[in-house]
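Provenance

Sequences were taken from public entries as deposited. Structures were produced by running a predictor on each sequence independently, with no templates supplied. The record for DUF1559 domain-containing protein from Roseimaritima ulvae is shown for reference.
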Amino acid sequence: MSSGQPVPQNPYPQQPQPTGPYPAPPPKSNTGLVLLIIGLVAIPVMLVCGGILVALLLPAVQAGREAARRMACSNNMKQIGLAMHNYHDAYGSFPPAYTVDESGQRLHSWRTLILPFMEQQALHESIDFSKPWDDPANQMAANTMIPAYACPSSAIDPTMTSYVAVVDPSAVMSGTDGIKIRAILDGTSNTIMVTEVASEDAVPWMSPNDISMPAFVNMAASGRGNHPGGGNVLFCDGSVQFMTENTDANVRSSLVTRDAQD
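Predicted structure for DUF1559 domain-containing protein:
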C-alpha cells in the first residue's frame, strides 16, 4: 500500500555493462625474450674471450714472477758473498770448502763456517765441529732452515741448499785450504766461487758436498736449472751475474780457476 511518500532514489546506480564490441588487448612485448636470447649468446662469447685474455696474460704474469724470484736468488747470493768477505776480514782468507778430522773424513761445509756472518751466531755456537755434520749431536742444527741458502725458484726441502761452491785444486774453493784474495791472480771480479744448482742437485746445507769443476762445466748439458736459460753465479768480489746455459765450456772453466796459468 502506498503511503503517499515519494520513493527515494538509489544513491548507487548500477553502471551500464558494456555489450561489445570489446577493445583488442595491447600487443605483448618481445623485449624480455630478445634480452634472454642475447644473454644466452653473449655468455659463451664472454667466456671464450675471457679465456683467450687469460691465456694471453698468463705468460706475462709468470715471467714477472720468475723475474722477481731470480732477483731474490741474486740477493741471497750477494748475502753469501758479503759473509765470505767478512769471514776473510776476520780470518785472513776465504773459508775452506770443507773441514776434515784427523783421518781426512769430511766434517763440515763452508756454509756452516760462515754462519756468524749470516746473522746465525747462535746456530753456529750450537754445532759440535769436532763431529760430522750428520752426527746426532748436530741433528737440530742440520734441521734448521736458512732462508738465504735456498733459491726461491727451486722446489727443495727447507734443510737443503741450491748454492754450492765449485771445488777444484785450481779454484778459490780448493778443499781444506782457505784461499787469500791476493792468491786470486785472475782478479776477484773474474773468478767464480759459488754457483746455484737445480733442485735435483741440491744438497743438505750443512753437508760438506758441493760441485766439482767437470760437473760445473757440464751443467748446461744436463738441461736442468732453477731459472729459464741459465743460473746465477757468485764471483769473488761479491758480485752476482746470470750465466746463460749456452756459455762455452772453456769460458766456464777459465772463470773458476784463480790463475789462468793453472
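The beta strands are 98-100, 106-109, 160-161, 163-167, 192-196, 203-204, 211-212, 230-235, 240-244.
Residues 31-91 form the longest helix (61 residues).
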